[in-house]
Design a protein that fits this description.
about 130 residues
């Protein structure tokens, strides 16, 4: 009977080691799938914000596009968002630089022209006619 108990207890050890291995793999997977990419993104964002220069076209986190016209102390940046219109934003609000290499001109596309109004003339060919013998 003692021999039988020893044989049963040695078989469960392999399953316990497999479960322990899986539990150790979960934090490792979380590191590679979540923490490491987030750190890389933060590092890239910090590098972008430190490399900003006057004249760069940027987009803020709120979606405002503008050109950098100057820097102030305390990480403040002046953006020109339209001719003679400037706003002051925090450096951390800059989401990224705008890629202007794909555009060939700096002009805006023209809005579509409104279509001509339809004629309200009753003497069209498509209008049904009535017989006088009805």
């Amino acid at each position: 009977m003692t021999l039988n108990l020893l044989a049963n207890s040695s078989g469960g050890g392999g399953a316990a080691i497999a479960q322990l291995g899986i539990l150790l793999l979960i934090p490792l997977a979380l590191y590679f799938l979540m923490i490491r990419p987030q750190r890389r993104k933060a590092r890239d964002q910090q590098a972008l914000q430190s490399a900003l220069q006057v004249g760069d076209e940027v987009m803020t986190t709120s979606g405002v596009y503008g050109f950098i016209t100057g820097f102030e102390e305390n990480d403040r940046i002046w953006l020109e968002i339209d001719e003679d219109v400037q706003i002051r934003v925090n450096r951390a609000a800059i989401q990224g630089k705008v890629d202007t290499s794909g555009s060939t001109s700096d002009t805006r596309p023209e809005p579509p022209k409104p279509s001509a109004p339809k004629s309200t003339d009753d003497s069209t060919e498509d209008a049904p006619t009535r017989d006088s013998a009805g």
